[in-house]
Amino acid sequence: MDNNEGLPPRNVSKDEYHFDDCEFDKSVSTINSRYSSVMTFLQQRRVFHATNEFGKILHTAQDLYSHANWVELGYPRDPRRPEKPEASDLVSFSGTKSAVDSSWTVPKGGSIVASDIILANDDWSPPLGWRIKKHGAGDFQSVLYNSTGVRQGRLLETGKGFLDGECSIPTAGYGGFTHEELNKDSPTNAKYKKARALAELQTANEWCRLVAKAGRADRDGLLLAMLVRPGANPHPANTRCRPVPDFNDAFHHRVTVAVESVQIRNDGDDSGSGEIQLSAAFYDNPQAFHKSVHKENRGGPMSLNTGALVPTKQLPEPMTMCVQRGTSVNWALHGWDNDEIGSEPNSNLFDDKGRFADSLLTGGRAKFSSEASGSLPLAWQDFNVRIRITQGGRC
User: Fold this and answer.
1) pLDDT tens by residue, 23-51
2) pLDDT tens digits, residue range 321-355?
3) Would you say which domain of life the source belongs to (predicted)?
């Protein structure tokens, strides 16, 4: 996204990719548009196209905190925890206070975005006779006054570049700040750690948003089975999908899903046997994603042909989760044909790196009541699967 070499597109000069030149509304529109692209790619099961688009979303979202004066305006707000922000420290139009699968809100110039903070969008100008005092409330905190001298608030703005002056407001005699003055990309900048902490928390919330949106598109199973490593924690703290503790009471109990059999319907290889790996996820509602378990098949890649059964000793281990009675839970399984075994770093991971991009083997997602039990057969595009659901005692 920062590339500025070679032939177009020269992404670094596109304000809407970086929240540059006070281009708030188009930057937000760019983020929302890319989410639509992510969902399209997930619908098409083009996983790595989806992750590429999601990475572009993250770049733009992170740049907001590095390129704007949000830190200078007093965020994160708790002086005792300057590098450990809360969700309330993030910009309101990022939608972190709305439903988990909500989109960013396209803000209007001159609107209030937090307490006394006014958005200075690139196409906005205050009424005639109003004025702006640069650094009026402290370093890089400009203050807007109406025509009678009454203070209206401080301005949220980003730095202007060399080629244009969209953050300038000639009607108020205001020149804004340069990109270099506000930029906090470098660790040598005194405000870098605060900007980075905010960007990281926004990134974590974007992951929660992605899971929820994938759930609306019936691609939550694909996302969680294929993009969460076993042993990883996909529930970041201080986010809308943060982990919640297990409750040892009559309203919660343990549910276990054990894989009884997996038959390969398509090994993914044009000739010879496939190098099959499986990945499973057991989780709660993707719109309230607080619990999950992730497992791959035991023993690593398996040389299997179409029609073959996965050896019992290599099936994924049983997966147990504490859930609330009367709710729904989800179990998903997908896989891949791994053609780069041992030849590249992290060669046992699902990826599109190295000489050979891994081929997705399409399974699916089963949704069932937390009170369910018994054996459940599942027929999916590339797998026939049978699981057994059992109920346990209190958590």
Assistant:
1) 999 999 999 999 999 999 999 999 999 99
2) 999 999 999 999 999 998 776 666 667 889 887 77
3) Bacteria
Fold entry, domain 223-391: Immunoglobulin-like (2.60.40)
pTM beyond 0.85, yes or no: yes
Interatomic CA distance for residues 163 and 316, integer angstroms: 56
Q: Give the contacts of 38 (CB within 8 A, at least 6 positions apart).
A: 50, 53, 54, 57, 210, 213
Write down the domain spans for the chain: 11-212, 223-391
Give the pair of three-digit tokens for residue 376. Answer: 């459940």
The Cα 243–Cα 164 span in angstroms is 45
User: What residues have CB less than 8 Å from 329, skipping those under 6 apart?
Assistant: 255, 282, 283, 284, 321, 323, 367, 368, 369, 370
Paired residues of 257 in beta bridges: 319, 389
User: What digits encode the pLDDT tens for the residues 375-389?
Assistant: 999 999 999 999 999
- Alpha carbon distance 21, 157 (integer Å): 8
